[in-house]
UniProtKB/TrEMBL annotation, chain A:
<dbReference type="InterPro" id="IPR036078">
    <property type="entry name" value="Spo11/TopoVI_A_sf"/>
</dbReference>
<dbReference type="GO" id="GO:0005524">
    <property type="term" value="F:ATP binding"/>
</dbReference>
<dbReference type="GO" id="GO:0048477">
    <property type="term" value="P:oogenesis"/>
</dbReference>
<feature type="domain" description="Meiosis-specific protein Spo11">
    <location>
        <begin position="2"/>
        <end position="38"/>
    </location>
</feature>
<feature type="domain" description="Spo11/DNA topoisomerase VI subunit A N-terminal">
    <location>
        <begin position="106"/>
        <end position="167"/>
    </location>
</feature>
<dbReference type="GO" id="GO:0000706">
    <property type="term" value="P:meiotic DNA double-strand break processing"/>
</dbReference>
<dbReference type="GO" id="GO:0046872">
    <property type="term" value="F:metal ion binding"/>
</dbReference>
<feature type="domain" description="Topoisomerase 6 subunit A/Spo11 TOPRIM">
    <location>
        <begin position="215"/>
        <end position="386"/>
    </location>
</feature>
<dbReference type="InterPro" id="IPR034136">
    <property type="entry name" value="TOPRIM_Topo6A/Spo11"/>
</dbReference>
TrEMBL record, chain B:
<protein>
    <submittedName>
        <fullName>Type 2 DNA topoisomerase 6 subunit B-like isoform X1</fullName>
    </submittedName>
</protein>
<feature type="compositionally biased region" description="Polar residues">
    <location>
        <begin position="515"/>
        <end position="524"/>
    </location>
</feature>
<dbReference type="InterPro" id="IPR028040">
    <property type="entry name" value="TopoVIB-like"/>
</dbReference>
<feature type="region of interest" description="Disordered">
    <location>
        <begin position="441"/>
        <end position="492"/>
    </location>
</feature>
<feature type="region of interest" description="Disordered">
    <location>
        <begin position="511"/>
        <end position="537"/>
    </location>
</feature>
<dbReference type="GO" id="GO:0042138">
    <property type="term" value="P:meiotic DNA double-strand break formation"/>
</dbReference>
<dbReference type="GO" id="GO:0007131">
    <property type="term" value="P:reciprocal meiotic recombination"/>
</dbReference>
<dbReference type="Pfam" id="PF15091">
    <property type="entry name" value="DUF4554"/>
</dbReference>
<feature type="compositionally biased region" description="Acidic residues">
    <location>
        <begin position="460"/>
        <end position="469"/>
    </location>
</feature>
Length: 392, 561
């Protein structure tokens, strides 16, 4: 793959290369990745038929049918493994979605409705987005989050990743830098252009991925991402890739990050605000979320490192106090909650940074760096951190 | 005329009682016993009209200082125009016997009446006693005698019947059998009580014209609302409000309107006077079809209620909205007995214009009480709508998978399981089966609740049972739900009932006992604590126990097979 190399000298990436070698080494020494479930279409169809069969049998016995779902949003059902992140325990607690209860009957019916739609999609080998499903009956579903939640429940219930349900979601993420690939429909995509490319909707379908990137930088916010593009960051630090999920990442952005890691074993860094929300977003990329813990193996990248903005940077760089924002009560609660999570114990440096934040009682946005200099982020902060290993 | 006279005397007695009791405690419920007995004293050969003697006997804690002659004189002055003969038995007769330590008195009324007229009078008196007994739950009202050769006997107000204290020494009997017939519902009931919500009292402004007519003082109206029967333990049960009954009570907890009386309260003809029905998507129409022969306590005003929203399943249960309006009057000075008695009719005469003047106040107070009473109903209606709306979605989804499947074994198995020959029949069967499961839940079989839940996990939580929490947290139907001790409930006048506990009082008067026939024991005459009641109580206690266990257990502790 021939990309125009305008970046720094090779010695600039010495520490990064060493980091990459150590990551690959630890992968070889580690337990290895768990075998991923690759469900065939016929298996998905049979799973749905079994559910329907159980319901019909219950009805024939004059018993109100119910669906049993794993409790996805309960920390008690989650275990932490450094190499995987947050994942569901094998025999987790469940909840019943009853057909004869006013509180859950509607959910029961909606799950069946979406199951029947998935059945058709899988049968006809066609795909639909979550938005498409919502728009089939706006009144019935009420809002998009209902559909999203049910799809996750179904994915968890059938123990099948969402893409095998033939449901896609419209991506909100953007990517730019030293990367090219071919989408499922044959479209060739080159991300080296100055404008960002939308993260594809069908990550599973993309092929011929190619890159010479030395690292992948995950940027929390779109505004920072655009600023880096404007500052020609990708060329200045070429070869590299930058990606943003525009806040809390969607599944496709997470899947793409995971795919890039799996394919290239690139060092991956995050650039987030020095606030509890930014840390939370970083944790989602690295260790996964509670709600999607059942699919952790396909989504998490535990090798991700925290590049910035670190709370310790606030004092180290003498960021003006008036650019800092006091932590709200909600921020404090969030910070406390993150500090109690199982993965914090194996990240002592993260814990230290969070304690600094708690002590300062202040948070800082990435934009705070512009008070030092308008292009301080792309010209000084990031290059220095990347060159000298300023990540944790 | 006799019925009216008897009722006026009864009013007079109760006002006296109430007045005396209030001197001790305004909040204490009135206690005592009152007997009305009607007997024919005409020789058999004499042509009609027959001569009847009505005995009114009463015994109460607050009639010790009653001076019989003055009392009789007071009554006589009130009954001007009454053609019958009013007598007070001999001095020796009164206070001759103590009943449970209470002094007792008798009045006799002699009239000549045709038997059909007297029969109608009996119904009016009975209804008056029943209405009064509802709000004076500690007074036992006995009504009996013999008319046209038919012996009858009835007691209203029994010990241990559940009571809710309302205000100023007024209570409310909460056994639902007073307001609706047993078997009115389709579904099995666990709770046999009503749960009145007491509204806030409103001070009614009295227009000058009415004030000048003698109504100088403070007039308050306190509403209380309840749904009958109670469905709190059956939140998923289909129910609709089919009627609204208004019971109007005046000072001393006396019915302001006599049963069957043409009253001047035209405000109630306006369906929306008391309540904004539209708020709950209901509409009301006046119901004038109130029969005195009905054995229930009869409302002063009745409305048919219909829902704007939807047509209800045929098997949906019906509920009645009960609205009690308690009107009280406090004059500037203590009223004499006769003045207090006269206030009742004075109030009735002027209440219409007073209510008109205070419409927004009255409606606000009623609305608050009814809102609270209907809240549960409203939630249940919403829940029911959710359940019903879910069925077609579930059915069409299942059908879509079954009909769209290319696996013939799966299709065949599904159709066979529901014994359907084709997908059309399969759809119908699915629909019926879902409806059946909802119906079964609404029946709320306590045994079913005890069945272990099928569970693949030791830790399992159910979504959708908050109603049970509510039922317990809201202390629905606490304690027992006893039936009143009542002779021949639902049979009333014209039937011979079994022995009642009011014989000691009867023996005070002449009360000739001539029994005709010895019919079978009335199945509904079992008293509180009888086998039937015990069964109901056991059921209730079982239900509470189940719910308590269910709640105490929490997730993961549910019994597993």
């Amino acid at each position: 793959m021939a990309f125009a190399l305008m970046g720094p000298e090779a010695s600039f990436f010495r520490v990064l290369d060493q980091h990459r070698v150590s990551l690959i080494q630890s992968l070889k020494e580690g337990p290895g990745e768990a075998p991923r479930k690759e469900a065939s279409s016929s298996e998905v169809l049979v799973s749905i038929e079994n559910i329907i069969q159980d319901i019909v049998t219950s009805l024939a016995r004059n018993e109100a049918p119910f669906l049993t779902l794993d409790n996805r949003s309960n920390w008690e059902n989650i275990k932490f493994e450094d190499s995987v992140g947050l994942q569901m325990i094998p025999h987790c607690s469940t909840k019943k979605i009853k057909s004869d209860s006013a509180q859950s009957a509607q959910r029961f019916a909606l799950i069946l409705k979406i199951l029947s739609m998935i059945y058709k999609l899988v049968q006809s080998n066609t795909y639909a987005t979550k938005r498409d499903i919502y728009y089939t009956d706006i009144q019935l579903f009420g809002n998009q989050s209902v559909v999203d939640n049910i799809i996750n429940d179904i994915s968890c219930m059938l123990k099948v990743p969402r893409r095998y349900l033939h449901i896609l979601s419209t991506s909100k993420g953007l990517i730019a830098g030293n990367l090219s690939y071919i989408e499922e429909d044959g479209t060739k995509v080159n991300c080296t252009c100055s404008t960002a490319v939308a993260v594809p909707s069908n990550i599973q379908g993309i092929r011929n991925l190619a890159t010479d990137a030395k690292f992948l930088l995950i940027v929390e916010k779109d505004a920072t991402f655009q600023r880096l593009l404007d500052d020609n960051f990708c060329n200045k630090l070429s070869p590299c890739i930058i990606i943003t999920g525009k806040g809390v990442p969607d599944l496709n952005t997470r899947l793409l990050v995971k795919k890039l890691w799996d394919t290239f074993h690139l060092p991956i860094f995050t650039l987030v605000d020095a606030d509890p929300h930014g840390i939370e977003i970083m944790c989602i990329y690295k260790y996964g979320s509670l709600a999607m813990s059942f699919e952790a193996h396909n989504l998490t990248v535990p090798t991700i490192r925290w590049l910035g903005l670190l709370p310790s940077d606030i004092e180290r760089l003498n960021i003006p106090k008036d650019t800092l924002i006091p932590l709200t009560k909600r921020d404090q609660m969030k910070l406390d909650s993150i500090l109690k999570r199982p993965y914090v114990t194996c990240q002592p440096f993260w814990k230290k940074e969070m304690e600094i934040m708690a002590e300062l009682k202040m948070k800082a946005e990435i934009q705070a760096l512009t008070f030092i200099s308008s292009d301080y982020l792309s010209r000084v902060y990031l290059p220095n951190k990347l060159q000298f290993g300023g990540w944790i | 005329m006799e019925a009216r006279a008897v009722c006026e005397i009864l009013k007079y007695v109760i006002i006296h009682w109430k007045k005396e009791a209030a001197e001790l405690s305004r909040k204490a419920l009135l206690e005592g016993e009152l007997l009305v007995s009607i007997e024919e004293s005409t020789p058999k050969h004499r042509a009609d009209p027959s001569h009847y003697v009505t005995t009114i006997a009463f015994a109460g804690s607050a009639c010790g200082d009653l001076v019989p002659k003055q009392f009789l004189k007071g009554i006589q002055s009130l009954l001007s125009g009454f053609s019958g003969k009013l007598t007070w038995p001999s001095e020796e007769a009164h206070c001759a016997q103590d009943l449970a330590g209470l002094a007792s008195f008798q009045i006799k009324i002699e009239v000549d009446e045709k038997p059909p007229t007297l029969m109608a009078d009996c119904l009016v008196i009975k209804q008056f006693l029943h209405r009064t007994s509802i709000v004076h739950p500690k007074v036992r009202f006995h009504f009996g005698g013999e008319v046209n050769g038919i012996l009858f006997k009835e007691t209203f107000g029994v010990e241990k019947e559940p009571v809710v204290k309302l205000l100023n020494g007024i209570g409310l009997l909460t056994s639902q059998h007073h307001y609706m017939r047993p078997g009115f519902l389709g579904a099995q009931q666990v709770c046999s009580r009503i749960h009145p919500v007491l509204g806030h009292p409103v001070l009614l402004s009295i227009p000058d014209e009415e004030a000048n007519m003698g109504l100088l003082g403070q007039l308050t109206l306190t509403p209380a609302a309840a749904l009958c029967p109670c469905h709190k333990l059956h939140p998923d049960q289909t129910s609709r409000i089919s009627a609204a009954f208004v019971f109007l009570y005046g000072p001393s907890g006396l019915p302001l309107i006599f049963p069957n009386q043409e009253h001047p309260l035209t405000v109630f003809k306006d369906n929306s006077y008391l309540f904004d029905w539209k708020k709950y998507h209901l509409r009301a129409a006046p119901n004038s079809n109130i029969s005195l022969e009905d054995d229930l306590v009869l409302p002063d005003v009745s409305y048919w209620i219909e829902s704007h929203e939807r047509s209800w399943p045929q098997d949906s249960d019906q509920q009645i909205l009960l609205l009690f309006l308690m009107v009280d009057f406090q004059g500037g000075f203590p009223a004499q007995l006769t003045e207090a008695w006269g206030l009742q009719s004075l109030l009735l005469t002027h209440l219409n214009s007073i209510l008109l003047e205070n419409q927004s106040l009255v409606q606000g107070a009623v609305q608050t009480a009814v809102d609270q009473a209907l809240e549960q109903h409203h939630r249940r209606v919403k829940a029911q709508q959710k359940l019903q709306a879910s069925i077609p979605v579930a059915v069409s989804s299942i059908l879509s998978v079954v009909a769209g499947s290319t696996r013939s074994s799966f299709r065949a198995l599904c159709l066979q399981t529901l014994q359907a020959v084709d997908t059309q029949e399969f759809r119908r069967r699915l629909h019926e089966a879902f409806q059946m499961t909802l119906h079964q839940r609404s029946m709320c079989d306590p045994k079913k609740q005890q069945l272990p839940e099928p569970s693949s996990s030791a830790e399992e939580r159910e979504e959708g049972d908050e109603s049970l929490d509510e039922a317990l947290a809201g202390s629905c139907c606490p304690g027992e739900a006893p039936r009143p001790k009542r002779s021949c409930q639902g049979e009333g006048v014209g039937r011979k009932a079994q022995a009642a506990s009011w014989l000691p009082l009867l023996s005070l008067g002449e009360a000739p006992q001539r029994s005709i026939g010895t019919g079978p024991t009335c199945s509904q005459a079992r008293g509180w604590g009888g086998p039937e009641t015990r069964g109901e109580d056991t059921l209730w206690l079982q239900e509470v126990s189940n719910l308590s266990e269910w709640l105490r257990a929490g997730p993961g502790s549910r019994p597993v097979p």
